[in-house]
């Protein structure tokens, strides 16, 4: 049984739900050492998918764990000043801007997820504080999702399903089922996910090329395009795996999409604002392309998207990369391995430098 303690004027309070901003300690199971280590690990995460009781238990074996599930009343500067390792993730608060210059204790921020700009400011990157995220550890989830969408479009799975279960209701099928064999596949953004998509698709014998201005030397077996114009003009399929930044926002336009051949396939599992949504909807209405879309500009209301009215688009509501328990385990294990490495003075995985931060969503 795990006990929950609250700091309250130095006394131990009963195991109840913590009030907003209150500090919570999780004690190890009976039989484990109760000795507090010198390392203070502060967890600023309320998301219960990311931070479970088991995860906190494992952190307790590495140091003293302070877990905050709310922070409206917290003095973040004071909390960070008393922390050696900070754990953040989805929904964590934006950290104070001037802290790295004043910092004398905090040495490592372990960000559980990928996108971090809503929590970790640029001033933390390249400072005395090391910063990591989940890196390539979870790339398989989005790569699998992109491939699932691609095959769903190529094989016309929604149309085939509809024709089986509703044989008397007509459903528009404007082209035959197709194979990936010999198809020209263009990858926009050759980061962790883009590289994994290529690796996973290789057994199906497509012809690969990519556009990514940050890549200086093309990987073996892949042609590098030096403009988006060439990427879209020379591929039957384009799949987006770039981060969202100033350079990529709104970069996929009607002009570029129209360069693809009739019946081409466009896949986006990256970020919605990379694509000019009304331009994609326009070319889909013209029946020139087919699309598999997991992300849009306004994901709070998918039905308001012009793509929702396009019968030649498969929409998956930013859920195609969901992995359930497996993803949770990978996220937590990646963080624990890095935290252990930091405590024992070993190299960290997935360190974020200024250039990587600049290119991130």
UniProtKB/TrEMBL annotation:
<dbReference type="InterPro" id="IPR036291">
    <property type="entry name" value="NAD(P)-bd_dom_sf"/>
</dbReference>
<dbReference type="Pfam" id="PF02826">
    <property type="entry name" value="2-Hacid_dh_C"/>
</dbReference>
<feature type="domain" description="D-isomer specific 2-hydroxyacid dehydrogenase NAD-binding">
    <location>
        <begin position="147"/>
        <end position="319"/>
    </location>
</feature>
<dbReference type="GO" id="GO:0005829">
    <property type="term" value="C:cytosol"/>
</dbReference>
<dbReference type="GO" id="GO:0030267">
    <property type="term" value="F:glyoxylate reductase (NADPH) activity"/>
</dbReference>
<protein>
    <recommendedName>
        <fullName>D-isomer specific 2-hydroxyacid dehydrogenase NAD-binding domain-containing protein</fullName>
    </recommendedName>
</protein>
<keyword id="KW-0520">NAD</keyword>
<dbReference type="InterPro" id="IPR050223">
    <property type="entry name" value="D-isomer_2-hydroxyacid_DH"/>
</dbReference>
<dbReference type="InterPro" id="IPR029753">
    <property type="entry name" value="D-isomer_DH_CS"/>
</dbReference>
<dbReference type="GO" id="GO:0016618">
    <property type="term" value="F:hydroxypyruvate reductase [NAD(P)H] activity"/>
</dbReference>
<dbReference type="InterPro" id="IPR006140">
    <property type="entry name" value="D-isomer_DH_NAD-bd"/>
</dbReference>
<keyword id="KW-0560">Oxidoreductase</keyword>
<dbReference type="GO" id="GO:0051287">
    <property type="term" value="F:NAD binding"/>
</dbReference>
